[in-house]
Design goal:
The complex is a heterodimer of chains A (219) and B (117). By secondary structure, chain A is α/β, with parallel strands linked by helices. Chain A has helices at residues 12-22, 36-45, 61-68, 84-93, 105-116, 124-147, 152-162, 167-174, 178-192, 197-212, and strands at residues 3-8, 28-33, 49-53, 74-79, 97-100. Chain A has ten helices and five strands, in the order βαβαβαβαβαααααα. In chain A, α1 (12-22) links the parallel β1 and β2 (28-33). In chain A, α4 (84-93) crosses α6 (124-147) and α7 crosses α10 (197-212). Mean pLDDT of chain A is 87; it is low at 212-219. Chain B has 117 residues and is of the alpha/beta class. In chain B, 31% of the residues lie in helices and 24% in strands. Chain B has helices spanning 19-29, 45-52, 100-116; strands spanning 11-15, 34-38, 56-60, 73-76, 83-87, 90-93. The mean pLDDT of chain B is 85. Classes of the chains: A alpha/beta (219), B alpha/beta (117).
Chain lengths: 219, 117
Amino acid sequence: MTTRVCIADGVTVFRAGVRAVLEREKDFAVSDAADLAELEDELSAGVEIVLLDADLPPHGGVAAIASAKGRCQEIIVWSLRPTAAEVLNAVRAGATGYLRKEISSVGLVRTLRGAARGESPLSRDLTALMIDAIHSTESHARANQLAAVLSVRERQVLDHLARGAKNKQIAVALTISEFTVKRHVQNILQKLGLPSRRAAAAFYGSLAESVGSGTQGAV
Amino acid sequence: MAAVGFRTRPLVAVLSQVPLFVEALTGAFGEIADIRGIDPADVAVDGLLHAFSPDAVIADADVASTLQADIPCLRVDLRTQETFILSDGDWTLLPGESSPEAIRNVVVAQLYGARSA
């Protein structure tokens, strides 16, 4: 039985490389797409597996997943040196697997045959990466939940505290008394269940990360 | 014993950790040249390159390597699809798409243009 694979990748070299590998095998029929519009055409013609570049023009692979979902059996996203965020975002968007573009020819054939049987391609190291990303996301979510109990003024105090400011400096910056700053600090530590100013600074760092770039970590 | 390294056609070394890049170039060069993929992370890559003595080198942009200035050297960025050629010690961006065939044509032009000079 022949598995129809569409290589959806804006980079000609990768389309050519995958085609060269799969055309040596007797159980694959290969088509390719350089962008989302061409992928749509291939999906209409019928494919079982889409090998989808994370940077597929014009809007990226995650956006293209929405087009492919429900119209093929497997959507495998791939990229060079994927980050934790890229893997997690792709899987959340509906990808059924993720591969590195550094994969060997033998590995690619083996993976696609497995995908044709319904196996989800995700190597051990990418699985570990994704688990770390999920844990990090959960940690950030907990930080956000905790921070929601702080008042606006308490958040302002925490911001200064996290940067190493002493109570007197915070009082001057916020135009409040030092006594008031001390009270806010006590409230912050109590509400967040933290033992010290240093712990509060570390908590603030985690909060700032979750607001900034979300999950971190590259392979 | 037959001499090892006797060549009937040019040898092009491809410095890359992306096997599919090597596959694509192998397909494009076909019978024109022999392609040898070399892992740039190999601890003795310089020695290996010297031993192979390729007629041309193609590297991907993620590779830091000592490319020989006396043979055609190309650098291909696998993310942006830009191709650069080493010319007088500087990398010059080549116009057009970096398809495997286009890369092949540049290398062939360099090899046979140099021989006829």
